[in-house]
Amino acid sequence: MDCQQVKRSLSEKIGALGLNLSEKEHIHICADCRIYYERLMELDKYLKCGTTPIIKETEFATIQKKLDEKIGRYQNRALYFYHLSVRYGISLTAVILLLIVSLIGKSGKDIYQSKPADHYDTLLTLIDEETIDEQYIEAVVNGYVQTYGINSGEMLIGDLTPGELEYLKSEIKAGDIFL
Amino acid sequence: MEQDNYELVAKAQRGDRSSFDDLVRINKDKMFALVYRMTGNRDVALDLLQETFFTAFKELKRFRGDAHFSSWLYRIAFNRAVNHLRRQKLLSFIPISKMGKLEPSYDMPDNPGLGELNSAIEKAVGSLPPKQKMIFTLRFYEQLPFKEISMISGKSESAIKTNYQKAIEKLRKQLQDFR
Questions:
Q1: Residues of A numbered 15-34 whose beta carbons fall under 8 angstroms of chain B's beta carbons: which are they?
Q2: Which of B24, B32, B115 sits opposite A53 (nearest CB)?
Q3: Residue B128 DSSP code
Q4: B3, B43, B61, B80 — which has fewest CB within 10 A?
Q5: What is the CATH number of the domain that holds B65?
Q6: Residue-wise pLDDT tens digits, A34-45
């Protein structure tokens, strides 16, 4: 063992000094390391003279009281936030679910509702009462049905001229809903 | 001791408050000794001790039992003490006029008749950098293995040994007048 190694090893052991055989042999033959070891022994002795800081019973009682208060506050706060999260969590979940359902419903409806309802009302006013434009009527009827549903055709009856109504009855299958 | 700790920790983790109080009682002296030696101030050490146990209470569910419970507590106490010392160091840069009225120091020794040597030891240990102070305290006074100190501090075992040797050298130089 070299001196550096022995000194390092001795330093590590201070506080629990106990030499192994090779260290003992080295110290026996090396004066420098022997002095170092003796100084460490002295330091060990001195350091152990120092009193161990001990917490007094009164101090501990104060700490425990403060700790109890702190823990109590923490638990109350945690409980409060738990109740709050339960209460608002349910409401929030309901709102989110409603939002999701309405979004899904809207996107489903969009497949049929390619044009706004007002569009067909506007178109109807433009119909020339004397002229029967078959394609136009078909588009209007289909649009109405898709927009308002299968029974919505009734709404259309009032807007059609007798000639158009007759045409619907005879030519368009969807006209059945008017009868 | 650690076996007792484990059983109590398991109960405390299930919400048994009295088990947590027992854990506090069992570990208070060791933790107090560490924070007191690190800060050198009794009042500060008591506050840090309280904070350490409060943090332990909050984080108890996260303790997985990979290390000794006392090692886990040591780590919390050490972090608290280091944070305090950092804050104190930062405050030392603020001019006194900006700090307001200074509080009287309560940094009195436990025993008024404490010898000169004891004061010198406290002063010498107090002059070590925080990490060395912790390593020295845990190794010399608490007789913890280097491996455990390495787990507590999150540093390698060889770094701990080097720091311990440095701390011993500094103490040896500072206390050589007592030889």
A1: 15-16
A2: B32
A3: S
A4: B3
A5: 1.10.1740.10
A6: 888 888 888 888
